[in-house]
Fold:
Amino acid sequence: MARGLVSRVLLASPRGYCAGVERAVETVERALSLYGPPVYVRKQIVHNAHVVRELEELGAVFVEDEADVPHGATLVLSAHGVAPTVYQRAAARRLHTIDATCPLVTKVHVQARRYAAEGHRIVLIGHAGHEEVVGTTGEAPDATMLVESVEEAEALELPAGTPVAYITQTTLSVDETGEIIDVLKRRFPHIRGPQHEDICYATSNRQWAVKELLDEVDLLLVIGSRNSSNSNRLVEVARAAGVPSYLIDDETEIDETWLEDVETVGVTSGASAPERLVVRVCDWFRAYGVGDISPFASVYEDVVFRLPVELRRAETPAA
Structure:
């Protein structure tokens, strides 16, 4: 491969796996070890094609619906969370259900239930059709309204005196979500909201890391799958600042025409992308002739989530 103009690659930090993804992937691996294949997984355990393929090779079977799982089988619920009706249908099929929902998503579900029980209309800020939004809406379907943009927040109509609260999907753009919340607070001065923002620490940290990097790079590559919300947000953060950015599943999707007139490339990865994919992209650039590949900053995330209680009980020997 001929040497190009690129002379340096900078790696954003933090990047890659978050605690919720680590927990979800390990949940499937441990379930396979404990119970043997097949272990069924509802939807993609996390939104990354490489992770899904590797778990399939170990014996995981991914299904769209709990109705696709044989009676009495083991079912893992994905990190994105599900509506209460999913648990009910799984119980009716006598499935051995292991809940790998990210604890930060569970926190949003708890908020939705609380606001609904208190009689609030709930504004859910998020993306229509995303699995997390579907699951959260299912906690209070009659009370929840989805808002996807500032324009929709401006157009939202509620009867006078209606008690209202907002919650958000955990993988949104920090800046865009802040703008939507500002509109809601202006239009509904008594609106309630979470004490701490719902956007998860990993999403916020990865967006912050990209912003810190942008002044140093001519191009940003984000490693992540097309259906990964937080990965898409990283691309948007760069483009909003005027830096070209592309989402790639791995090094095979790098288009050399992107590198024309580019001296420094930034690389980051979404919260569901394993670090080995970053290594492969770095190897691609080394083969391209780039000798200077280094971290831009080193930020350590120390968040760890315990495995689901169903697994911990199964792994504890009886007294």
Q: What stands out?
A: The mean pLDDT is 95. The CA atoms of residues 20 and 254 lie 28 Å apart. The two ends are 62 Å apart (CA to CA).
